[in-house]
Design a protein that fits this description.
about 15% strand, alpha/beta, five-stranded parallel sheet, 9 helices
């Protein structure tokens, strides 16, 4: 898994870290500055992603190993589908996704084991920039509680284990050409955005 996709950015962090909020702000900033940007997310809005969201909400129950494979299916189409990430990158756009393969390596590894989940995802390319919004599990728990409609993984004990898996996944992919930007997600929304935008405003690069 050493292929790095230029102009591809992934936002990652535990539940409540603020990835969705920052994706929205990045898309708005790109629109204001005339940058061609395609904001997206995982699970996707495709049928495969909708089914995953039903699992995450508790509406549908599957084995952890099944869910891990469902994410792989959704991600493959997200990347290589007719209107997927690769197509947008080839059109010269900056692509920013709210969650990508590092979410699988963090969340699914808790129940399935890191090596097993890594094997399922090892062929996926890496983003040029991985932005990790770092918050304690307790902070994420409080934010999730305020939001309501909790998903199956939204509890402090599980999220603490997810943090450890994120650290393992990020460390294991160091030195492979992917830039990692860690941002303190406990800071204000504006402060977090400014740190992210100070890096992303130099994208997209044209030497694809």
């Amino acid at each position: 898994m050493t292929n790095v996709l230029k102009n591809f950015v992934a936002l990652e962090g535990i539940d409540g870290a603020g990835t969705t909020t920052q994706l929205r702000r990045i898309a708005a900033a790109c629109a204001e500055t005339g940058v061609a940007c395609h904001p997206t997310c995982e699970p996707t809005v495709m049928e495969s992603g909708r089914l995953i969201r039903k699992v995450l909400s508790g509406e549908v129950t599957v084995r952890p190993q099944t869910l891990a494979r469902m994410f792989v299916t959704d991600r493959y189409e997200h990347l290589y589908g007719e209107t997927g990430i690769i197509a947008h990158l080839n059109s010269g756009e900056l692509v920013v996704t709210d969650r990508y393969l590092f979410s699988s390596l963090a969340y699914q590894s808790v129940e399935c084991g890191y090596d097993s989940v890594f094997e399922l995802n090892k062929e996926f390319p890496l983003p040029q920039v991985l932005i990790y919004l770092d918050i304690p599990a307790e902070v994420g728990d409080l934010r999730s509680a305020r939001r309501g409609n909790r998903e199956i993984f939204e509890n402090s004990d599980f999220q603490q284990r997810v943090i450890r898996m994120y650290d393992r996944a990020i460390t294991s992919h160091s030195g492979l050409g992917m830039e990692v930007l860690r941002v303190d997600g406990t800071e204000s929304e504006d402060s977090v955005f400014e740190k992210i935008w100070s890096r992303l405003k130099r994208l997209p690069i044209e030497d694809m």
